[in-house]
Specification:
5 strands, alpha/beta, Pyruvate Kinase, Chain: A, domain 1, 5 helices, 289 residues, five-stranded mixed β-sheet
């Protein structure tokens, strides 16, 4: 049976852990506010760029632009997997890794090579330990996330695709929905599949200057970079939300454990006092005899 000193030590240990989880929750909450602001500001730009791309590409044969051209009979596909650099975020990383693993395994077929591009330390370490073919890794930049990080990844995959080293490229990440909810997303990055213009009540006949193909030369690389940037922002905000929720739950659990241990300590202390009193009374009775 645990002694009073052991119980007191455990209470102190749990209180220390509670202070850490509470501090981590507050840090995640502060970072989440900033991450949400950046993410929400980027969403309209990405949405409008997608719409413009749809209008322009509708006027061009997809086979005329290398980033729109579909490679027939693909021989090599890649998955860009975005996880976090740190843990303690509930199932945030595990969900992405599990989905990426399923997508990777489902893509296996004779004559088709499959590779990974890992963004985030957790995903990279997981797949490296299991000897998955990793084409490239990008880690350690989420605390100072910048558009240049999306450009670096975008430049790599565009070079690989236009050089016909990769034939399909997919993106696997967590889209931010709310602090407690993320939407696991698998999206084809290359070849670009523009959304066709939605039916308009009053259709507009655009005049393009320069030509649609010239516009696509600028628009397509920008589109890839913006899609990656939006995915990085969404993933980072989702990670912080998951971490904040996990640390809040851990803090509450620590509170419950402290209450239970305190009750256990008080009962044990009461039993010890009662035992001492009985010994004193027993000793006094023995002296009387």
């Amino acid at each position: 049976m645990a002694t009073l000193r052991d119980i007191k030590r455990r209470i102190g240990s749990v209180k220390s852990t509670q202070q850490i989880t509470k501090a981590m929750k507050l840090v995640a909450a502060a970072k989440l506010r900033r991450a949400q602001e950046r993410m929400l500001k980027a969403r309209p730009y990405a949405r409008n760029l997608d719409e413009i791309l749809g209008h322009v590409s509708a006027k061009v044969d997809p086979g005329l632009h290398p980033l729109l051209t579909v490679h027939e009979e693909p021989k090599h596909i890649a998955f860009v997997v975005i996880t976090g650099d740190r843990g303690l975020a509930s199932s945030f990383n595990a969900n992405v890794i599990r989905r990426a693993t399923n997508e990777f395994q489902n893509a296996q077929r004779p004559g088709l090579q499959t590779s990974l591009i890992c963004v985030g330390k957790k995903g990279y370490e997981h797949f490296q330990r299991r000897n998955y073919p990793i084409l490239a890794k990008y880690t350690g930049f989420f605390n100072y996330l910048d558009f240049t990080h999306a450009q670096d990844i975008g430049e790599l995959i565009q070079q690989q695709y236009t050089g016909e080293k990769l034939d399909r490229i997919f993106l696997v990440y967590n889209e931010f929905k709310s602090v407690i909810q993320q939407n696991l997303t698998v999206q084809q990055l290359l070849p670009i599949v523009p959304r066709p213009p939605q039916d308009e009540r009053y259709p507009t006949d655009f005049i393009f200057e320069p030509s649609p193909l010239k516009i696509l030369d600028t628009l397509c690389p920008k589109y890839i970079n913006i899609e990656l940037w939006q995915a990085l922002l969404e993933s980072y905000a989702a990670e912080l939300g998951a971490r904040m929720a996990a640390m809040d739950a851990a803090t509450e659990n620590a509170k419950e454990i402290i209450m239970q241990l305190t009750l256990h300590y008080n009962k044990a202390r009461q039993a010890a006092i009662t035992k001492e009193l009985l010994e004193i009374v027993g000793g006094a009775e023995a002296l009387k005899k």
